[in-house]
Amino acid sequence: MTILYIDADACPVRDEVYRVAERLNLKVFVVSNGSRPILPSRDPNVTMVTVEAGADQADDWIVEQIAANDVCVTQDIPLAGRCLTKGAYAVTPNGKIWDNNNIGNALAGRAVSQHLRELGVATGGPAPFSKADRSRFLNALDKVVQAALRAPPA
Description:
Layout: E1 3-7, H1 14-24, E2 27-32, E3 46-50, H2 57-65, E4 71-73, H3 77-85, E5 89-91, E6 97-98, H4 103-118, H5 131-150
Parallel strand pairs: 1-2, 1-4, 2-3, 4-5
Antiparallel strand pairs: 5-6
Helix pairs in contact: 3-4
């Protein structure tokens, strides 16, 4: 059975994931380090997980748990890459679906941007989240969840 994992800190689409999960009766793990309060869901299929504070603690927990044909919602490119290596799906809150054809370039671009920031070059941040992003996310989530549900068991 497909499970949905949310890298929850700063995730603007938790409610959308909850609605999709409820409609399809899927289990959801909402993983955070507790740095920002997250209202718990009343849905019994949604489990809130708070990990220790620290870099990549939530990411590590997700990677330890996620399996082939599960879905991770994350803005974190390295986490998405780690999920893909386990045969899972990964989608960003603005609707970008990560796969083995695009994750390598994204990881390389992230490394270059990080290096530029370390040199003091202003690289800018993400664009503000929009209604169009939310719509793209719902379409992308539906696409990957349906693919995961159709995939043969791993």
